[in-house]
Amino acid sequence: MQAGSSKPASEIIKSMTRGKTNRISPEALVKYFRPLELWLRVQNRDEPLIGWSSNYHDVALFAPQRGGVGRSAGSYLLIISVLCFLV
């Protein structure tokens, strides 16, 4: 994780994939965890909300900005941290 603060994400990804690529996609992880997500949705469907509910203004703070190029640094950080956890 230290390298993430001093090197670009594409360089870290290239070193993690042994030079094969400098881009990764979260689609394989999303596909792998899709059954768990569906199961959790069913399990939590009738459960009461614990905590607080969000409104549009709360959610808008964390929405991706339009007009950006490619993925944000946050999404790369999430992908890299998941890969590091799995390795």
Short overview:
This protein has helices at residues 3-6, 9-16, 27-44, 56-60, 73-86.
Structure commentary:
- The chain is mainly alpha-helical and 87 residues long.
- The chain has a domain at 1-47 and 75-87.
- It is built from five helices and no strands.
- The protein has helices spanning 3-6, 9-16, 27-44, 56-60, 73-86.
- The mean pLDDT is 74.
- Pfam families: Peptidase_M2.
- Belongs to the peptidase M2 family.
Shape: extended
- Tally the beta strands: 0
State the helical fraction: 55-70%
Mean pLDDT: 74
The major sheet is characterized as:
none
Q: Which range does the strand content fall in?
A: under 5%
Q: Whole-Å distance between the termini?
A: 13 Å
- In terms of per-residue confidence, which ranges show pLDDT below 50 for 5 or more consecutive residues? none
List the helices and strands and how they pair.
Layout lengths: L2 H4 L2 H8 L10 H18 L11 H5 L12 H14 L1
Task: Describe this protein with a few key phrases.
87 residues; single chain; 56% helix; mainly alpha; 5 helices
